[in-house]
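Priority: low. Protein: SLH domain-containing protein. Input follows.
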Amino acid sequence: MKAPKASDYYSKADDTAWYANTLIIAANNGLDLPKDIDPEQTWTREEFTRPLMNAIATQVGLPVVKMSPDRIADTDKFANGVDSVILGAFVLNIAKLDDDNNFLPAKSITRAEAGEEIYDALAYLKLVNRRATYPRTVTPIR
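Result:
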């Protein structure tokens, strides 16, 4: 059996790049990335946040979001509109608004911002998984 390579899943992936193993993991865990994704391209904040939230939804689902998009000042700047996936990123504190309540969805995301979103997403997943291990019913002590 041959070891998987990133290029087995993504046509523009470099099998020797630092991200290669991450793409293999993503492909084998249901992350819905385009097969022709260019890992070297610059991503906008919206382009990064949306698949990150979809990855969370694939793993544990997303809660029903009760947040008005009115809180976001630049809703007109989102390429795909403000939907429950994007709102969920704010409700779960994975994505942040600036001091003027702008997300700046078309702005290129920095590695630091991407790292912060991933860190916050992993913290949410740990919280959900910890809650899932608690017993659902309590057995009375006799």
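The chain has a mean pLDDT of 87. The helical segments are 6-9, 20-28, 45-60, 84-91, 111-132.
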